[in-house]
UniProtKB/TrEMBL annotation:
UniProt-recorded name of the protein: Serine hydrolase domain-containing protein
InterPro entries per the UniProt record, alphabetical: AB_hydrolase_fold, FSH-like_dom, LovG
Gene Ontology BP terms: secondary metabolic process
GO cellular component, one term: cytoplasm
Matching Pfam families: FSH1 (PF03959)
Keyword set, alphabetical order: Hydrolase
Cleaved signal peptide residues: none
Lineage: Eukaryota, Fungi, Dikarya, Ascomycota, Pezizomycotina
Domain Serine hydrolase: 2-199
Organism for this UniProt entry: Cladonia borealis
Length: 220
């Protein structure tokens, strides 16, 4: 599968590559990954200094306080996905801010007649999807309405001790179809399990593989 990879707020694509290195290695060589950089400069996210290289800059895809910025980014992301045809994206993998963007796009897409832009979504330390209707009225708020679901296979990995986005990983998982979602809750915080957290890493990889299998079966 060809993955579109979206980094967290105040990080960058190289850091997201490091954060997901162990997961990607465990998933095997049959997948490819395209890490795209947010265009907006942003202060460095606390807690990532061990992943930072000299000269690094830090980015966001959108200003999380401005509906206009979010709507513009959603439109740009749709254009980017449509243009990616060699090969097209099969899946999206997002961390925190990146998962919020991906989930908001998928929720936006679920209200129309167009097919979903992906066969699979992987949400790591997720930020909850935003309410598209509110964005159109200039308001930024998390989606909290009933009756609308993300219907494709999904994998959700979050930490019990996530202080940056408490409860949002679980909320997003509940917005996805129960029969098509796989979850793994680890002992850490706002992070991705790595080689030092073998049990948590194994659980995360198992959840992602389950979602991949459903997507490959056409279960969406």
């Amino acid at each position: 599968m060809h993955f579109l990879c979206l980094h967290g707020l105040g990080t960058n694509s190289q850091i997201f590559e490091l954060q997901t290195a162990a997961i990607r290695y465990a998933l095997g060589p049959d997948h490819t990954y395209d890490f795209i950089e947010g265009e907006l400069s942003y202060p460095m996210e606390p807690g990532i200094s061990h992943l930072v290289s000299p000269g690094d800059s830090f980015h966001a895809y959108f200003d999380p306080t401005k509906a206009s910025s979010i709507l513009s980014t959603l439109a740009e992301l749709e254009d980017h996905i449509a243009a990616e045809d060699e090969p097209p994206y099969d899946a999206v993998m997002g961390f925190s801010h990146g998962s919020c963007l991906a989930a908001t796009l998928l929720l936006r897409n679920s209200t129309g007649s167009s097919p979903a832009p992906f066969k699979l979504a992987v949400f790591l330390s997720a930020g909850m999807a935003l309410d598209n209707a509110a964005l159109e009225h200039g308001e930024v708020r998390m989606f909290n309405r009933t009756g609308l679901k993300i219907g494709l296979p999904t994998a959700h990995v979050w930490g019990e001790n996530d202080a940056s986005a408490p409860g949002q990983g679980k909320l997003l998982s509940e917005l996805c179809e129960p029969g098509k979602r796989a979850t793994a809750v680890h002992m850490g915080g706002h992070s991705v399990p790595g080689v030092k957290e073998k049990r948590d890493l194994d659980a995360a990889v198992k959840a992602i593989k389950r979602a991949i299998e459903k997507a490959q079966e056409g279960d969406f």
